[in-house]
Every structure is written in C-alpha cells, then in structure tokens.
C-alpha cells in the first residue's frame, strides 16, 4: 500500500468506528420510547444540535476531500461528476435529517464512507496494474560503464556513441544494444520477453538493452545509440500505450458526459414535479416534499457512473500490463480491442515462422567427400556476406584461409567462379551450369540448390534450407484452437519451398514468389475477402514488412530480431520472437474484452433496475450505496482479473 492509501484506510477505519459508536449511542441515549394512551413517540434525551455536531466529525473525516473536489468542480464549471453527485446526495440527506429533527445522520456518513471504500479498492487495483507496467519501466538503465585509462567510469547512456566498448558487470542492466567482444554470461531477460529461463551468451553474440547480466563480466561494443536501443523503444511504447483509447473507453467517456447531467436533472425533476402534482391535484400535505426529496437523493447516489468510468479503463490497463509481463507489448487499448476481433492471421515466412538462418541440409550426388566439397564451397564463397555464403562457412566449421583463394568472380544471378588451391571452382544455380554447358543432376529436395563443378566436371550439389522455428507448427495449431478461421503465409521464396513449409506447419493458404509490393497487394485482397468475417492481423519482422504491418487491421512485429522499421510500424510487439505468443496475445485481448462487456452489462442492469426502484420509492439510501459502491467494487475486482494471463 502507498502512503496515500494507508492514510485513506485510517480515515475509513476512524470514520467507521465513530459512526458505529454514534449509532449505538443514539439508540441508547438519543431517544426514549414512551407509551401514552396506547401511542408511542420518540423524545430526544440529548438535544438535536449536539447530535448534529457529533455526527459531522466522522462525516468531515471521511468526506472533506470529496466536498473540496465538488466545490472546485463547481467553480471551474465542471459540475457533473461523481464528486458532485456524492456531495449533493449526502448534504441533502443531512439537510433532510435537520428538517425532520431526527438527530440521526448515519445514512449521509454511510454513503460517503462506502464510496471512499470503493475508491480505495480502485486505487489498490490501479496500483497493482501500474506495478506490472513499472516492472517494465524498471529496465531503464541508470548508467553505462566505459573504460578510460584502465578505470571504469559511469556515464549517462545517452552520451555513449556507436562503437564504444562498454563493460557490463554481474548484477547490472545492459544499457545499450551491442555485440559481445569479450566474456560469457547468463542474461535475465524476464522483463523483456517474459521468459524466466536465463539466456546464455558468448563472445560474438548480440545482446539487447534492458536484460540483466547475472554471472560473468561482459565487454560489449555498442551497435546503436541509447535512444535507438531496445530498452528505449520499449519504454516509449509503454509510455504511449495509455494515450490510445479503445472504442469501448471512448463510448464510456461520451456516455458519462451525457448520462451524469441527465440523471442530475432527472433527480431534480423527481424532487419537484411529483410532489407538486400531489399537492395540487390530490390535496396532499407539505410532508410529501420530504418523501420525494429523499427519493431524489437516493436516485442521485444510485446514478453515479463510477463502476463504468473506473472499471473499463482499468480493465484495458490491466490487460496491457498483464501482456507486458509475458513479453507482449500492446501499443494501446484500441489495438487490444482490435486484436480480440481477429479471425485471419497472415504471416511473413522468413524470420517469423522460420529462423531466417540458412543451414546446409544436404549434400547430394557428390563425387568427392562431403567435407571436401563443403571446403571448396566455403572458400569460393569467402568474399560474400550473403546468408547462404555464411551458412556454407558455418557448415565447413574451420577457419577460412583466404590466401588459398584467387580469381573470385561473382556472376550476377547465377553464382561464383573462383580458384581454390589452383582448382577451378564453379558454384551456383542451374543457370550457371547451363551457361558453362556442364551436365548436372536436378535436385528434388526443397531449398536453395547450389550445384558445384571442379575444373569443369560436375561434383555434386549442396542443399541449403531456412530452418523452421521449433514451435511454429504448434503456434498455428494454437491459433486454430483459439478460433482463428484462416492462416496465410506470404513469402518471396519459390513455390516449391513455400508449399513445403506451409504443408508441414499446417498453414491454410500460401502465396509465394512475392516482391515486397506484392505483399501489400495480397494483404489488401485478403482484407477485402475478410471484411465480413472479422479483423486481419499480419505478423512480420523485416524492414520490407513495415508497409504491410501498417496496412493490416493489426500489425504484429517480432521484436527481438525484428527491424526497427517493423517494430515502429506494428501495433503489437513480441519481445522474444516466439510465434506461440501470437495466440496468447489474442487470448489476452479476448479475456480483456470479455471482462469489459461483463462490467458494462452488469453495471447498467443493476444501475437502471435500482434507478427505477429508487424513483418508485422501493429503494432507500442503503440500496443506493450498494448500487453505487457495491457495483463499483465488484466491477473493479472483476477488472483486475485481466492481469492474470499466465495460464491462457
């Protein structure tokens, strides 16, 4: 509990104790029941002004801030809010008790007391949600260690330039994205990805800011400025999330602006019109005024829209906080609402369903040993930085001696010609083999096929494939279980490769051999097809996915390895690139919206039922307290269920 919440709790306890003591005292010492000629009457033993003074002590303790806010609202012209409703209802109840000279002001104190209990519940619930957000905000690093003259100097992360070597010691946060140049360690990435298992890192690995170094000392060469680092991007997303309102929140805000003055004027009409009708047409006495004013005050307490105004934004806030703990960053409650309506999920292939890492998956029809063929291939490709070249070098697994390679010629769109240890090496696609008139064997495996010839004679071919993520297939199955009607994969790969991957993963449709611009066209076509079914989500990671992420109803970016452009364009960011989080994010959003609708229906049904009862005189101030505070507390408790997303 915060200091403010503790102070409020003390006020509630003191006011409640005083109210109970006064109520008991009033029953024993306030009135005496006497019997005269068969009639019973109340006679005050203690003067009424003394009771008024005593009761105003707990009323002032529990209600002074509400009265103050209501007065300020009237001064500023912002009259119709919950503070005004509470103030006018309780002051009215006190005035009625004074006119009736009853000496009992329990109802006025009880209304204010239970309202403040509801406010305390709300404050605690919001605090719980904020703590989840704060855990994310906690990833902000305070400093970076820069080595100068053999000593470590702590500097502001903003001052560190790209390419600077920083030192991250055990227990410290990684301040800026970079490449490990020296050392190995375990990193705690739970605040970033929701993954509780530490990640082992070694020299040559890329690491992202915001993770916590747990064991060894690391020397890191920064690859980004602090403002462009992962931690800064996350903080920016979280800080801006609350500014993007959902349609439900906007509806409630508009509803409250119209509803509150409407019920105030209705209460005024209830206090004036029925008694006037009774007096003029039914010749009733003036006592009917008290009856209808009491009904009007009860009507005001019931009408307070706190349950809706508080619980709806709180539910979205809790949902965003709960998703953040799981490594899913939602940029606003409007995106959370849209996500709940998704029925079609469209995937980019490379880096989303696959790792975007090419590996040698086979060596076929080779006339020399596998290792020797891979050695020739790796050396011939040593001058290229293409992912395929890197996969050949990784498969070879030994240090590349570039002195063994001469006469490297890159043949655009076909392959490479080089001499390795004086042996003429040709490596490339079948176009290269046709051009050099070398008879080769076609490969029926799926992947990128590299044919090789040594001194003009065919030597075999190497198959290179993009590796699927371990849980991509399960992620597709989970989406279908979650009610997603259609999954589509878009890729620039050849049709055979795309069909093979889609078939193994269980994707419904595949569109292959697409250029980046073609992906936008395909998504627009799918949006048109999907119009009557629901919303469409696109999941991608690359810079060429940014236009598609923007065009889709909801864009989901892979955050850990995704490009800055993709993260910037997306509405939802998955911090650990796990495709399983896609279905989880949809489940979180649906739970959140389900709670929102539950609260709206529950609050409105109870409110309108009690308003009718209050207007007809069947509801007293105690039922009004339940209709206001009780409903708000129940709605708030229901709202904080949105925080619990672990087992979805």
The major sheet is characterized as: 7 strands, mixed
Q: Output the strand order for the largest sheet.
A: 12-24-23-22-13-20-21
Uncertain segments: 32-45
Proportion in β-strands: 15-25%
Q: Give the helix level as a range of percent.
A: 40-55%
Label the overall shape: elongated
Count, helices: 20
Primary descriptors:
24 strands; seven-stranded mixed β-sheet; Rossmann fold; 20% strand; Calcium-transporting ATPase, cytoplasmic transduction domain A; alpha+beta; six-stranded antiparallel β-sheet; 20 helices
Give the SSE map.
Layout: H1 3-30, E1 31-36, E2 39-44, H2 48-76, H3 82-100, H4 106-137, E3 144-148, E4 151-155, E5 165-168, E6 178-182, E7 185-188, H5 190-193, E8 199-201, E9 206-207, E10 212-213, E11 218-222, H6 230-241, H7 247-281, H8 288-303, H9 306-325, E12 328-330, H10 333-339, E13 342-348, E14 354-364, H11 370-380, H12 387-396, E15 405-411, E16 415-420, E17 423-428, H13 430-435, E18 448-454, E19 457-468, H14 472-481, E20 486-490, H15 495-505, E21 509-511, H16 516-530, E22 535-540, H17 546-551, E23 554-558, H18 564-569, E24 572-574, H19 580-616, H20 621-639
Parallel strand pairs: 13-20, 13-22, 20-21, 22-23, 23-24
Antiparallel strand pairs: 1-2, 3-4, 3-5, 5-11, 6-9, 6-11, 7-8, 7-10, 12-24, 14-19, 15-16, 16-17, 17-18, 18-19
Would you write up a description of this structure?
The chain contains 20 helices and 24 strands. The longest helix is centred in the last third of the chain and has 37 residues, at 580-616. It folds into 4 domains: 3-134 and 244-316 and 592-643, no CATH class; 144-240, Distorted Sandwich (Calcium-transporting ATPase, cytoplasmic transduction domain A); 333-353 and 471-570, HAD superfamily/HAD-like (Rossmann fold, 3-Layer(aba) Sandwich); 355-468, 3-Layer(aba) Sandwich (Calcium-transporting ATPase, cytoplasmic domain N). It is 51% helix and 20% strand. By secondary structure, the protein is α+β, with helices and mostly antiparallel strands.
